[in-house]
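Cont'd.
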Amino acid sequence: MKETKLGEFEEVLLLLVGILGEEAYSFKVAEEFESQTKREVSIGAVHSTLNRLEEKGFLESEMGQATAERGGRRKRIYTITASGQRALETSRDFRVSLWSQFPAFATGKVNFG
Amino acid sequence: MKETKLGEFEEVLLLLVGILGEEAYSFKVAEEFESQTKREVSIGAVHSTLNRLEEKGFLESEMGQATAERGGRRKRIYTITASGQRALETSRDFRVSLWSQFPAFATGKVNFG
DNA sequence: AGTATTTCCTACTAAAAAGTAGAACAAATA
DNA sequence: TATTTGTTCTACTTTTTAGTAGGAAATACT
């Protein structure tokens, strides 16, 4: 298996999929991205990135059922794979380790509960 | 000012400069990168990335004095600018915030002291 | 049936990040 | 003075990531 890395945008989208759970379909992910970052993003960019993440084996997807809402095509729901989760953990552990070594950051812990 | 983002590799190098302090010159940064990641890196890649970070205003540098050691050209010592530090903080805060929302990660805190 | 709505999807392009190759420099030792 | 060592530096190429444009599908409402 190729040494697959995660770009910044990719990592954020992956995490958003994890956060959104059942609601992780591309439109929603794009909305969530904008609301959490205040950065604009085009739906196409999200789409192609989610595709890439799926190719890399970090995400899986399947079509959801049509909902009872007004109009609309069926949603493609994404879920994180074991490999995706591992990639996120590795990335987190590595960052936390670096932060702890950087004097300007090294308060010893980060609380985020 | 342009909306300057930080790539994955760039962010790691920036942090390594912070960690290395007085010892933050490109050769050392490359060494440190390899020892902390177990990933190989070419000195040229480090060099061009440090350059880019300097152009973006996240790093500053100046030539150090010649040391009493065997041989060698003078070192260019890098330091993080205020803007670089802010970028790191922003990135950290954002990540911590996302992790806390991701059920699989949300233990509430990360200890790294 | 026709229209509006919600979402997907693909092929393409642009921009940015990462990596390569190899020369050049400065100082210490032999 | 020649050699070795530690290091910088620049121009270039490749790869990866991000973004664009615009069409198409599926569903519900009228």
